[in-house]
Amino acid sequence: MKVFTVFLSLCLLLACKKGIIPMNNERLPADTLVKVADTTKKPADTVKKPMDTTTKPVDPNLGKQLNYLALGDSYTIGESVDRPQIFPAQLVKQLEKAGLIINPPVIIARTGWTTSELLDAIKVSGGIRKFNFVTLLIGVNNQYRGESKDKYRKEFKELLQTAIDYANGDKTHVFVVSIPDWGVTPFGKQSGRDQQMISQEIDAFNAINKEETLTLGISYTDITPASRNAATDNSLVASDGLHPSGNMYLDWGANVAPAVLKVFKR
Fold this sequence. Notes:
- By secondary structure, the protein is α/β, with parallel strands linked by helices.
- 42% of the residues lie in helices and 9% in strands.
- It has a single domain (65-264), classed as Rossmann fold.
- GO terms for molecular function: hydrolase activity, acting on ester bonds.
């Protein structure tokens, strides 16, 4: 019996030396690591961060889709140029580059229209829909047909009020563009008319539309001096030899855009 007891004790001693320690008949995996718990407490962040005073006010027009109405004649519809090159489209491109979102413009314009014909077209178009902003460029055909300046003044004032109505009664959302000088174009030079007389008459009609526009406190963009560059730069004239090219319309858009952005990018 003593011999058996000694033998059993010897076996247990050898087992312990080999590292085999049975616990509830289970063994720990060889790669099991027991990490010491992190009981240290980190100091609380009691330092107050300064307020960010550089935050800009939220743009009320951010993400808003704006509706645009263009009123006019051939210079608005873009006679002899592709649609992406017409003045309203060029203006939209400039505004979108600055971050505005513009729906495809609605255009009420036709080649040859005078102020009275534009007024008639508006009347037959039905009820007045509201737009975020409106451009107005009209009068070259009044001059071309030799109509009276008094009639032009009366009808232009009506169109200004109509444009304000379209702009939901907000005159700061109306943008008038002056009449370009067609007399300097190849067509104008070959028309048999006195170019100097054409320029003087264009200036007289523009004096009227500018006076009436500024009297109401409406934005006015004078593109007439630049339009006269077509006298020596054929790239500013469309293929028909009379109407502006996309290059000239691009210039118009670039000149009108700042006035629109001043209203919508506050």
